[in-house]
């Protein structure tokens, strides 16, 4: 047998809503004509609904005077209750119409990662987390997460940062990359090409520099080219990527940040080795990792890092 009504909740016993609305408007204006104008109906329709309500309740709600209406004591009580109820209903509907306030989360990371990895994914974030406003702070200067200068960070390095909740995102490697129009195939051909350098922050545990690459490759560096005094040098890795794309030389670049150019063939990795530089990590102040908005950003970044290239 189908259950039509709840065993706990009894059906509401209410007069028709049209009658209640007509009465509330007429009581507010003390006029059927003005109530009709408010509700976009005729005065006779208002009068009919009010009389139907009076018959339902079994008592008069108005005293009908010459060219004037006055509320009876019962009508005044009903008007006060209906006005409060309609005001609450209207406020509730208005809250539903208003878009929910966005929760702002500030993500801080270095300028290259912000430009090359986060920004291309921002449209996807808005679809995945519509209730969160993601504010991107791109800077090569570390901010104090414990002090609240930002809510969440993507940092590269060892991940050993006291006071922070940390989760590894992905390992990072740097390798020689260049435009295919250079025709570079072997490391022995490097002396024919300009080396492109990008600055690393002081104190980086394992910076990917050309002197290090030549050591790990077991190759003697071309004379004078192991130092930044020769070739092109940039303070931002994004500019080094652009220089390599333009065919200005060979750069040691992040395989993560140059992934799109490698997929498209705009850049190639002609040879190894690739240098390990640590990993990218998610970090936030201890105790904040389960705040709903921070967790939403955290999980979204983690899902993007785990997604197939």
Characterise the protein shown here.
With 309 residues, the protein is α/β, with parallel strands linked by helices. It is 37% helix and 21% strand. It has helices at residues 17-29, 32-39, 43-57, 73-97, 111-118, 122-128, 210-217, 237-245, 259-264, 292-306, and strands spanning 62-65, 68-71, 103-109, 132-138, 152-157, 164-177, 195-198, 232-234, 250-254, 275-285. The protein has an eight-stranded mixed β-sheet. Strand 1 and strand 2 form a beta hairpin. Helix 1 (17-29) crosses helix 2. The longest helix is centred in the N-terminal third of the chain and has 25 residues, at 73-97. It is rod-shaped, with a radius of gyration of 35 Å. The two termini are 55 Å apart. Residues 1-6 have low confidence and may be disordered.
The amount of helix comes to 25-40%
Shape: rod-shaped
Supply the helix-strand structural class.
alpha/beta
For the residues shown, what is the average pLDDT? 87
Oligomer: single chain
């Amino acid at each position: 047998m189908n259950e039509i009504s709840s065993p706990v909740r009894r059906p509401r016993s209410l007069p028709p809503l049209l009658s209640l609305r007509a009465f509330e408007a007429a009581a507010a204006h003390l006029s059927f004509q003005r109530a009709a104008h408010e509700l976009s109906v005729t005065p006779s329709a208002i009068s009919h609904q009010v009389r139907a309500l009076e018959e339902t309740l079994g008592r008069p709600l108005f005293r009908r005077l010459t060219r004037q209406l006055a509320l009876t004591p019962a009508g005044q009580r009903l008007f006060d209750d209906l006005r409060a109820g309609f005001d609450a209903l209207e406020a509730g509907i208005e809250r539903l119409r208003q878009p929910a306030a966005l929760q702002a989360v500030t993500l801080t990371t270095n300028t290259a990662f912000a430009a090359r990895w986060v920004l291309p994914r921002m449209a996807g974030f808005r679809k995945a987390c519509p209730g969160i406003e993601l504010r991107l702070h791109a800077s090569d200067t570390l901010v104090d997460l414990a002090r609240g200068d930002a809510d969440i960070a993507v940092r590269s390095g060892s991940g050993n940062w006291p006071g922070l909740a940390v989760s590894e995102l992905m390992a990072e490697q740097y390798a020689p990359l260049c435009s295919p129009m250079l025709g570079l195939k072997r490391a022995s051909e490097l002396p024919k090409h300009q080396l492109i350098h990008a600055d690393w922050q002081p104190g980086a545990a394992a910076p990917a520099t050309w002197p290090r690459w030549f050591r790990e490759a077991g190759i003697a560096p071309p004379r004078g080219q192991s130092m930044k005094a020769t070739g092109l040098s940039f303070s931002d890795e994004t500019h080094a990527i652009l220089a390599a794309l333009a065919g200005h030389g060979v750069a040691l670049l992040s395989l993560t940040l140059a992934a799109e150019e490698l997929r498209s063939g705009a850049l190639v990795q002609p040879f190894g080795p690739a240098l390990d530089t640590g990993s990218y990590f998610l970090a936030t102040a201890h105790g904040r990792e389960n705040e709903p908005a921070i967790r939403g950003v955290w999980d979204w970044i983690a899902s993007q890092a785990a997604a197939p290239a």
